[in-house]
């Protein structure tokens, strides 16, 4: 998703029970009030995706492997799996862009998350993983900013980058 330059991708997730931040019962199904269609983002603070990503530091630009947990409103990162104290949290409702940045770091699995005060640079382990992270984060951002209904046609679906 890059709202400043047009939508680049949408999320790809399996359909589950109605679990977005706002729902309206329509006929036999639920419709998300954010995107005005059926969706599957959790209403609560449940985990959408978790796993290791390599993140660049804010001040000292070293790369550190962090356990990342994606929830409906944020991406939290920890020193390692099982830690309870967050090293930091990226507020996805403030996000203006989620996109690849492979040429910047000469790495096909690099991507960035842009919020007003900072740009976060992350690297996934492999191509499949980066596509999944981008899809899931993009979906959260679209719902968190309530931008889907204005920017995407109802029949738009996420398409992974061609190999």
Short description:
By secondary structure, the protein is of the alpha+beta class.
Could you characterize the architecture of this molecule?
There is one protein chain. With 163 residues, this protein is α+β, with helices and mostly antiparallel strands. It contains 3 helices and 9 strands. The protein has helices at 102-105, 127-144, 148-151, and strands spanning 23-26, 29-32, 49-56, 63-71, 74-78, 88-91, 97-100, 110-115, 118-123. Strands 6-5-4-3-9-8-7 form a 7-stranded antiparallel sheet. Strands 1-2 form a two-stranded antiparallel sheet. Strand 3 and strand 4 (63-71) form a beta hairpin. The longest helix has 18 residues, at 127-144.
Major β-sheet profile = 7 strands, antiparallel
- What separation lies between the terminal Cα atoms? 19 Å
Using only C-alpha atoms, the radius of gyration works out to 16 Å
- The whole-number mean of residue pLDDT values reads 74
Rough outline: globular
What class do helices, strands and sheet pairing give? alpha+beta
Indicate the percent of residues in helices: 10-25%
DSSP summary: helix tally:
3
Number of strands: 9
Notable characteristics:
163 residues, alpha+beta, seven-stranded antiparallel β-sheet, two-stranded antiparallel sheet, 16% helix, globular
What is the fold's blueprint, element by element?
Elements: E1 23-26, E2 29-32, E3 49-56, E4 63-71, E5 74-78, E6 88-91, E7 97-100, H1 102-105, E8 110-115, E9 118-123, H2 127-144, H3 148-151
């Amino acid at each position: 998703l890059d709202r400043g330059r047009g939508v680049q991708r949408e999320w790809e997730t399996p359909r589950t029970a109605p679990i977005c931040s706002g729902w309206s019962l329509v006929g036999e199904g639920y419709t998300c009030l954010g995107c005005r269609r059926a969706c599957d983002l959790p209403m609560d603070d449940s985990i959408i995706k978790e796993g290791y990503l390599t993140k660049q530091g804010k001040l000292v630009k070293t790369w550190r492997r962090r356990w990342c947990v994606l929830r409906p409103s944020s991406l939290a990162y920890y020193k390692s799996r099982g830690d309870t104290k967050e090293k930091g949290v990226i507020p996805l409702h403030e996000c203006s862009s989620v996109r690849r940045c492979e040429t910047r770091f000469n790495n096909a699995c690099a991507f960035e998350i842009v919020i007003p005060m900072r740009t976060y640079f992350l690297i996934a382990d492999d191509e499949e993983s980066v596509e999944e992270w981008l899809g899931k984060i993009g979906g959260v951002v679209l719902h968190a900013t309530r931008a889907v209904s204005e920017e995407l046609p109802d029949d738009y679906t996420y398409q992974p980058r061609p190999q």
